[in-house]
Amino acid sequence: MKKISQYFLQGLAVLVPVVATAYVIYIIFTKIDGMFSFAIPGAGFLFTIGLILVMGFMTSNLLANRVVLLVDRLFAKLPLVTMIYSSIKDLTHAFVGDKKSFNKPVQVAIDADNKIHLLGFITRDDLSAFGVANSVAVYLPQAYNFAGNLIIVDRSRVSPLTADPGAVMKLIISGGVSAQKTTYSPLAPQPEADPGQQ
Known about the structure:
2 domains; 5-stranded antiparallel beta sheet; alpha+beta
């Protein structure tokens, strides 16, 4: 019975990530494809990909860039639209733009003894425009969630991390269980052998 339980758990460990990933991709594919009434399945998805590529190519053109700036200014003048548009635009640029925002991973001390830390990303170094001095804005993603919290913290409580930003984001989103590949270094201190095992 113990062997059956072990096989079942091993099967879950393999199948759940594969099925969940395939399901998410399927949902995204069908949602995008369903926005268009093409008779051929997948044509709407390919059309969307093509449209994104064309827009990317066109915005490299000076004339198209002016059109984008015109739309940008128009949306910025509309009361409710400007809040939605600017928020989505900034979030999109944070991940895929030239100036990515989640590239400064840090740990934030949240207790007086500096023994408890939260992992996050500095998204704004200067908050003087908001009347806040000597502080930075740190975004704290939540585990197993696409949400997060923005906190304002004193610079002295923030320590930069040398780790890869993508690896830090993966660690946070996975709740700390994400497997991080490590490479063996002969210069790294090795644990001493237990004398009883020699």
